[in-house]
Amino acid sequence: MQDKFQTMSDQIIGRIDEMSTRIDDLEKNIADLMTQAGVEEAEGENKAKDPEAS
């Protein structure tokens, strides 16, 4: 019984680690796409013009 729990726990932890890596990759890809689209610059300009945006 303990071995089954340990195996399942290891599998769950492995899947969580894999999901974390995939989410990190996704965040990086989204940031790259936003940079390519110039979204960050537009946001920076809007914040500078609108004092309530902060």
UniProtKB/TrEMBL annotation:
<protein>
    <recommendedName>
        <fullName>Heat shock factor-binding protein 1</fullName>
    </recommendedName>
</protein>
<dbReference type="GO" id="GO:0005634">
    <property type="term" value="C:nucleus"/>
</dbReference>
<dbReference type="Pfam" id="PF06825">
    <property type="entry name" value="HSBP1"/>
</dbReference>
<dbReference type="GO" id="GO:0003714">
    <property type="term" value="F:transcription corepressor activity"/>
</dbReference>
<comment type="subunit">
    <text>Homohexamer. Associates with heptad repeats of HSF1 trimers and probably also HSF1 monomers, and with HSP70. Association with HSF1 trimers and HSP70 coincides with attenuation of heat shock response and the conversion of HSF1 trimer to monomer.</text>
</comment>
<dbReference type="GO" id="GO:0005829">
    <property type="term" value="C:cytosol"/>
</dbReference>
<dbReference type="GO" id="GO:0070370">
    <property type="term" value="P:cellular heat acclimation"/>
</dbReference>
<keyword id="KW-0175">Coiled coil</keyword>
<dbReference type="InterPro" id="IPR009643">
    <property type="entry name" value="HS1-bd"/>
</dbReference>
<comment type="similarity">
    <text>Belongs to the HSBP1 family.</text>
</comment>
<comment type="function">
    <text>Negative regulator of the heat shock response. Negatively affects HSF1 DNA-binding activity. May have a role in the suppression of the activation of the stress response during the aging process.</text>
</comment>
<feature type="coiled-coil region">
    <location>
        <begin position="9"/>
        <end position="43"/>
    </location>
</feature>
<keyword id="KW-0539">Nucleus</keyword>
